[in-house]
Design a protein that fits this description.
Blueprint (H helix, E strand, L loop, with lengths): L4 H14 L8 E2 L1 H8 L3 H13 L3 E4 L3 E4 L4 H23 L4 H19 L3 H18 L3 H9 L2 H14 L2 H16 L3 H13 L5 H7 L7
Antiparallel strand pairs: 1-3, 2-3
Helix pairs in contact: 1-3, 4-8, 4-9, 4-10, 5-6, 5-9, 6-7, 6-9, 9-10
Length: 219
């Protein structure tokens, strides 16, 4: 499917916000965006309204539009939701995963390893999301994944900031390997502790990140 101009601009702005190229709290000028993307004000405002509805932007009357600050409470709530939902997903997969499913997930892990070897961090981020999305899909819980993606505006930026501060992507890859191993070996008792370690390890950095980047966080 060929994306139309509005979708391409939306995707570009979303990517820049998530990757922190446009910083939390930074104002966005409609004039600059209109000139940059060669788009009129009306469709541009529709794009900005969409990003606002998703939690990435906020409109301040008489001041303009700016990127939302990262909300620590939203980050923690998203982490709790991820752990609860994905624990259920992985426990279901223990009894339903086929050999073909295991091969599919294994191929994703091989791609992650290649991305790490090539130091292609952006590709690794994509493959990280792909791995978890496939777990939800294989468990017949794609709607749950869609809900997670819909409300991840604060979590994804926090995770990016935490990993930029640490850069330990090898650890994420090891976590993924252990997750698949526990599912295939039907070690149900390992599922939740591993998820707490994998999804929640960034929370340990919250005090440090709040201290280092106070301007990025909602008070």
């Amino acid at each position: 499917m060929v994306l139309n101009t509005k979708e391409l601009i939306y995707s570009e702005l979303l990517s820049e916000i998530v990757k922190l190229k446009i910083k939390p709290g930074e104002f966005i000028k409609e004039n600059d965006l209109s000139l940059r993307f060669k788009i009129s004000r009306t469709p541009l405002r529709e794009i900005l309204k969409r990003l606002e509805a998703e939690g990435y932007l906020t409109v301040l009357p008489r001041h303009g539009t700016k990127v939302t600050l990262i909300d620590p409470i939203s980050v923690r709530q998203m982490l709790e939701m991820r752990i609860q939902l994905e624990t259920k997903v992985q426990k279901d997969l223990i009894f339903n995963l086929t050999l073909k499913d295991i091969e599919t997930l294994g191929e994703c892990l091989k791609s992650q390893e290649t991305a790490l070897t090539d130091k292609d961090i952006e590709l690794f981020w994509e493959l990280d999301n792909q791995f978890h999305e496939r777990l939800f899909s294989l468990a017949g819980k794609s709607l749950w994944w869609d809900i997670i993606r819909k409300y991840e505006a604060h979590y994804m930026r926090y995770r990016r900031l935490a990993m930029a501060d640490d850069n330990n992507f090898e650890l994420l890859y090891i976590h993924h390997k252990n997750i698949l191993k526990s599912i295939t070996e039907r070690k149900i008792e390992e599922i939740e502790p591993q998820l707490l370690s994998h999804v929640g390890f960034c929370t340990e950095k919250m005090p440090v990140l709040l201290y280092k980047y106070p301007e990025y966080f909602k008070k």
